[in-house]
Amino acid sequence: MQASTFGEFKMSTSEKYVHSLTKIKEAEEKTQKEIDEQKKKVVEELRNFEIHVTQSIATAKSDGEKLVESSVEQARKKANAETEKIVEEAKNKAKTISSKIDSHTVKEIIDILLKEV
């Protein structure tokens, strides 16, 4: 009886060992599956982040170019307005100067007219 009890004990130990190995293998497979899923998730997040960054850079570049164009256009309009103002002031001064008759000029005109009489 002792031999069969020892055999049962030995089988029981072997079965426990096989059972433990099976549990270890299942745990390894489960862990590897979780690692693979997490890796896939991280890769997807990285890809999405890269797309977002690329889009953000393109948007920032476009916005910057529009801002530069707008600033150049505003500067051009301001320069044109200032130029027109200067030209208009010059025209007005030219008209004023050419039509301005001072007392000395009037006296000379009168003297010329009176000499003829």
What would you say this structure looks like, in words?
The chain is an all-alpha fold and 117 residues long. It has one domain (2-115). It has two helices and no strands. It has helices at residues 2-99, 103-115. The relative contact order is 0.03.
What is the compact description of this entry?
This protein is an all-alpha fold and 117 residues long. It has two helices and no strands.
List keywords for this structure.
single chain, 117 residues, mainly alpha, 0% strand, rod-shaped
Rg: 50 Å
Q: What form results from the Cα inertia axes?
A: rod-shaped
- Label the structural class: mainly alpha
Distance between the termini: 171 Å
Total count of helical runs of at least 4 residues = 2
Describe the secondary-structure layout.
Layout: H1 2-99, H2 103-115
